[in-house]
Amino acid sequence: MDRPAPPDGIPHLAEVTPSLLAAIGTPGFENTLDIANVNSAAVLLIDGLGAELLDTYATDAPTLARLRSGTLQVGYPSTTSAGLAAIGTGTCSGQHGMVGYSFDLPDVGVMNALRWRVHPWGEDLRGTVDPAVLQPMPTAFERATSAGVDVRVVSSAEFTHSGMTQAVLRGGHYIGVHALGDLSASMLAALDQGGFCYGYHAMLDFVGHLYGPGSRAWRIQLRHVDLLVATLVDELPPGAVLAVVADHGMVEIDESVVDADSSEPLRDGVRALGGEARARHVYTVDGAASDVLAAWRDTLGERAWVVSGEEAIDTGWFGSGVTASVRERIGDVVVASRGRSAVLRRTVEPIESSLRGHHGSLTSAEQLVPLVLAYG
């Protein structure tokens, strides 16, 4: 079984925040992206804006296309929980521990990291799973704040007290917003005051899931995103830098999908399934790992890369330095979909299984995201 490795020579999304903080003179951070020295810095993460999608639909995003300065890789899994954690901690998934949209936790079961609930719609875990225990490393925002930097997090008001926010974005002053207008105004106000700002916009990903990336609805949404970026660029204060990035790209799935809930070979010996349609963690009953690996490989064939958890780690899917606690969250078998296939769960995950656009795997369409830079 061939195993794709992370591409050489392409910077990781985890390098963005440390590079920006170094560019404004924050001690303890390295500027690996060679961003010019500035007085204030902001990163805006556009959920779901893959580099290949931007290249294909550049006419719908002239500002983003014009200011495109490079390409980043996001690592495995190419999903929002891992991407937000990469921005907030400056590390890869093997260290920050957000190894999937959902993953198994001892004494908890499969947990949805974004909802901070038992997956898919179980009990709220904010009272039982401490975000600072699940992700114990100081975030880059905490380190910067301790160094005297004014750090602000500008994102949807609904995420203000979420477990995910507390796990990977803690340390900055959270500003809850509701629309493009107050997102823009809040980011610009933060830059006017100096320091560092992180902003997040979710709707391009949302539309892509519903209608497919490249659909008419998605392209219109991309034009709104480009207007958001153009507004920020036009009003950047002198001595400021804005970096626009994404957490993953997206593909539209086709009829080659497999339903794990109705496939007996994909259920035998399996105690739990995590991840999402394009990136699955398979947790096995004791003694069944090798048989489950063989069954999944035989059933999925060319539709997915199917490897053991150790093979995925050794190949660098989760970055270097996978910690012992994070290893427990990685499946005994790890599945990354190829082409436009996916491993759905139509019974357990009916909403997710009905979506047209998906992400999470190792294809270039999902892995590569743009790096856009603008200076005031």
Proportion of residues in helical segments: 25-40%
Structural class, from secondary structure content? alpha/beta
Strand count, sense and barrel status of the largest sheet are: 7 strands, mixed
Gross morphology: globular
Give the name of the CATH superfamily of the largest domain: Alkaline Phosphatase, subunit A
Beta-strand residue percentage:
15-25%
What's the alpha carbon Rg, rounded to whole Å?
20 Å
What's the rounded overall pLDDT mean?
A: 97
If strands are numbered along the chain, what order do they take across the biggest sheet? 2-18-9-1-8-6-7
CATH topology of the largest domain: Alkaline Phosphatase, subunit A
Count the beta strands: 18
CATH second-level architecture of the largest domain: 3-Layer(aba) Sandwich
Q: Uncertain runs with pLDDT below 50, 5 residues or more?
A: none
- N-C termini distance: 49 Å
- What's the helix count? 17
Any idea of the CATH class of the largest domain?
Alpha Beta
List key phrases describing it:
376 residues; alpha/beta; Alkaline Phosphatase, subunit A; Gyrase A, domain 2; 2 domains; seven-stranded mixed beta sheet; four-stranded antiparallel beta sheet; Alkaline_phosphatase_core_sf; Phosphodiest/P_Trfase; Alkaline phosphatase family protein
